[in-house]
Amino acid sequence: MADQTIIRFENVTKQYDQDPAVLNDVSFSIERGRFYTLLGPSGCGKTTILRLIAGFTEPTKGKIYFHGKVINDVPANKRQVNTVFQDYALFPHLNVFENVAFGLRIKGCKNDEINRKVLEALRFVNLVGYENREIKEMSGGQRQRVAIARAIVNEPEVILLDEPLSALDLKLRTEMQYELRELQRRLGITFVFVTHDQEEALAMSDEIFVLNEGNIQQSGTPTDIYDEPINRFVADFIGESNIVPGVMKEDYLVQCAGKNFDCVDGGFNSNEQVEIVIRPEDLQITSPDQGKLRIKVDSQLFRGVHYEICGYDQDGNEWLVHSTKKAKVGEEIGLYFDSEAIHVMRLGETEEEFDKRLEAYSEANHAD
Amino acid sequence: MQIRTRNLYLIPYLTWILLFVVAPILLIVYYSFFNVDGHFTLGNYQKFFTPVYLKMTLSSFWYALLITGISLLIAYPTAYWLTKTKHKQLWLLLIILPSWINLLLKAYAFLGIFGTYGPTNKLLESLGIGTQQILFTDFSFLFVSVYIFIPFMILPIYNALEEMNHSLLDAANDLGASQWTTFRRIIFPLTLDGVKSGCQAVFIPALSLFMITRLVAGNRVITLGTAIEQHFLVTQDWGMGATIAVFLIIAMAFIMMLTRKRK
Question: Where is the ABC transporter domain (chain A) (predicted)?
Answer without folding.
Answer: 7-238
